[in-house]
User: What shape does this take?
Amino acid sequence: MVHRVNHEFVEENFPTLSTMTYLNNASTGIPPVAMVDAVREYLDNRVNARGDFSETLALLKEVRVILAEMLGGDYSQYALVPSTSAGVNSFAHAIDYPSGSNIVICDLEFPANYVPWQNLCNLYGVELRVVKSENGKASPGMFMEHIDEKTRVVAVSYVQFGSGYRTHLKELADAVHDINGFLFSDIIQAAGWANVNLVDEAVDFAAGQAAKWLLGPIGAGYVYVKESILDQLKPKFLGWWGVKNLVDFGYSDREPLPDARMFQVGSPAAMPYVGMRESLKTIISIPAETREAVALENADYLRTRLGEIGVESYDFGTKHNSPIVSCAPSDVEELNKRLRDKRIFCSPRKGRLRVSPHFYNTHKEVDTLVENLR
Assistant: This one.
């Protein structure tokens, strides 16, 4: 089956793409026009004292509903937090760590998914085990060499930010659940392009934010919680947005909400979620199978073209590839400056050039990049 995204759809929703070659979605995605318009309208409403609290509540619920539609589960399993890092910390400190516990991560992670675990281990005396990657990958089998009956958490990105390696989450989940541990996943490099269902993957807790493949604003983060573990979690921080009877402003003993919103400590930043809602609505107007297929096919085409000009790139195979392509042309930093001068956008990462096409990109854009790599 051939999957395509309508060219007119891209022109209408992402007009600035015609002014550049944008292949840097693993850094930040290009927002749709509807997102920009919605944020402007929100600000106009603020300065004119339009709107009320019920509209804010409806907005935030709709964001959670769309996230559930996109990523699986029920909207009650989603909560809104300031960032991926905030989401990691909210889970990390909500479970207990019996004496002798360990946490397993790998050395490919972005700091958002290792700094919180380093800090937690220092605070609680937990052992941190770090899987050493090989050629851009840390496979489930490599993780399993470090998991034992004392493993409390395995924390892994669904897609590694630098190399693009995609983890088979269900395989890891089964392994860690066998010893009564938890699987945490940073999904920031997957949500938006990947046709993924977190329930089917058996993830216990996941976190991300909107600015990358979800094409939304920075500052619109979210978490997902497996329904069956909700009653095991005890938030380290609790605020008025995380307790029952939100609009009861009188003094009383308060109880945490029984769903993922227990992790919403204070008022969410409304403006980023105004934008995120429109970005999500634009994205889900394209079938998930199409989004994934087009992004992956763009990346496959890029790997083929890179091979034609003798530039090495990571290729992990169909099961583990993602739309993030890490390649090794010479003089990457200088090359990236030259590319930017021509409005060709990629990113240098770990001494390699990271190229990350989305569903709105084309073979023509890939060709433009490759011609400038010769």
